[in-house]
Prior knowledge:
- The protein is α+β, with helices and mostly antiparallel strands and 109 residues long.
- It has helices at 21-31, 39-46, 62-69, 77-96, 99-106, and strands at residues 2-3, 17-18, 37-38, 50-52, 59-61, 73-74.
- Strand 4 (50-52) and strand 5 form a beta hairpin.
- The chain is elongated.
Amino acid sequence: MGVRPPSNDVDDEPDVVEFGIAALDARIEEADVTFPVSAAELDDEYGHTEIPFDAAGNTMTVGEALREADREQFDSQQDLLNGLHPVFERKRQAASTSLVARLRALVPF
């Protein structure tokens, strides 16, 4: 997922803030992961990498996502993204329904 940040009228083109699967996809592309790959290999190599799961910048590590997905093997990049999507979506929904998130949404700063 991605969302455009508010425009401050400085740039003609606003940046896009990537989070969730879109952010994970970008990190996988940068890392040049070869498939098939085991969850253990991904955790060893990239487990400490933080991925934002919402537009507010809340993050979780790849290792946390892999443990929550409870999968042993990923045959392709799409398989990895499909397997971890529900994990990122649950985290995003949990964060958006928290009391702090609700209060933050009311304050316009």
